[in-house]
Every structure is written in C-alpha cells, then in structure tokens.
Amino acid sequence: MSKSPQTAYTRIAQILQKWPVDHVRPEPVSIQHYLRTHLPKAQGGLSESPSPSPISDSSINALNSLLKDTYSQRYPLSRKLRFPASKPDHYDVLLKEFEEAPTRTWFQRIQKRFGGFLRLK
C-alpha cells in the first residue's frame, strides 16, 4: 500500500534535516543537494492530479535505516578489520585527516602536499 506523495515528501524532509553534513565532499554531490534538486517542491494543499512519489517507500526506508545507523549496529566490524596488524592506527589517522582537511588554509594545504613529496627521516 503506497502512501500519499505529501507523506513521502514529509518523510524525506525529516531525513534531510537529520542527515549529517559531509565537510570533505563538495556540496553539489551531497545527498541533501541531490534530494533537494531532484524532488519537486511539495505544493501546499491538495493537487488536482496526485502524482506518485519520485522515490519509493523502500528507498525512503533505506535512507532512514542508514540515518539511524542500523547496519553498523547489526553487523559490527571485527577488531582485526578495524585495527589491522600492519598499521593499527591507520583508520584513526584517516579520520583525523578527514576532520582537519576542511579547516586547512591554503598555505597548510600546500605545506601538506610538499610534505608528502619530501619524506625526511
């Protein structure tokens, strides 16, 4: 049984409000931007010819389950995968890099790039 398009738009709007912002990925390729540009604006009141929702209920449910982090709770990572024996802090360093990258200045980005070229011991 399909719900009304207005209900689908409401559910999508709620998901968009709660969805975290990815500071590393450019805004035009974010899921928020995609949903806002590909979904027609919900019109106030009832329209004469109800059109089906452009996103299926199962897709909305999938977005909602991703938002609630259902899959990482149901299928947790093993310690061997999270902390590889060859470099146990790899993912911690990677997360730190993702957090720092959006706030770097132009000079810090150039400095980081040249630091990657020149490895002094």
TrEMBL record:
Signal peptide: none annotated. GO terms for cellular component: Cbp3p-Cbp6 complex. One of its GO terms (molecular function) is ribosome binding. GO terms for biological process: mitochondrial respiratory chain complex III assembly. It holds the Pfam family UQCC2_CBP6. PANTHER family: CYTOCHROME B PRE-MRNA-PROCESSING PROTEIN 6. This is Pc22g03930.
